[in-house]
Amino acid sequence: MATKQINVERFCVISSKTFRHIVAAMHTAVGHPDMTTFRAAVHAAKTYAELEEVVNAAVGPSGFMEFARFDLGEVLGKGSGSAAPQILRIVVGNPLIMSQMVKQVPDAGSYAPVTILIDEREDGVHLSYDRMASFLAPYGNLEALKVARDLDSKVEILLMAVAAGE
């Protein structure tokens, strides 16, 4: 049995835009493929070039696609009524980027695709992301870290643009 200590860096940007505006901007930035169709197309791809075509058709302008969405605010609201803050967890990624990390560090599959948390607080709407490079740093694989840092940069650019209302 083995354990590994991982210190996670969290990136967060705060927006004065409304929660609804932020969620709409995020929705516009990422792709929303029908996952059943997407999985079938991935399975049918015979070459990496064909896989690239499938993925590139599925991602949005940010280069990411949405895999799952969890409305945590809806659950919180059941216990506390309408006073509950809105909070949404969105799982996004790009299978091509994920594969570059996972082939170097298989454990990267535990962290990709990534989670973006959008939540209302008194000081604004927070968009938070745990940096992939911080997850992969303990593994010491420089190639995977390079990909992870590039991914972090792309996600952070996305969050800053969404927070600014772009």
Could you describe the 3D structure shown?
- The protein has seven helices and five strands.
- It has a five-stranded antiparallel sheet with strand order 1-5-4-3-2.
- It has a single domain, classed as TATA-Binding Protein (2-Layer Sandwich).
- The radius of gyration is 17 Å and the shape is globular.
- Helices cover 46% and strands 21% of the residues.
- β4 and β5 form a beta hairpin.
- The model has no long low-confidence stretch (mean pLDDT 94).
- α1 packs across α7 and α5 packs antiparallel against α7.
- It is an alpha+beta fold.
Keywords:
166 residues; TATA-Binding Protein; alpha+beta
Give me the secondary-structure topology.
Elements: E1 10-15, H1 19-29, H2 35-44, H3 48-58, E2 65-71, H4 72-80, E3 87-93, H5 95-102, E4 114-121, E5 124-130, H6 132-136, H7 142-164
Antiparallel strand pairs: 1-5, 2-3, 3-4, 4-5
Helix pairs in contact: 1-7, 5-7
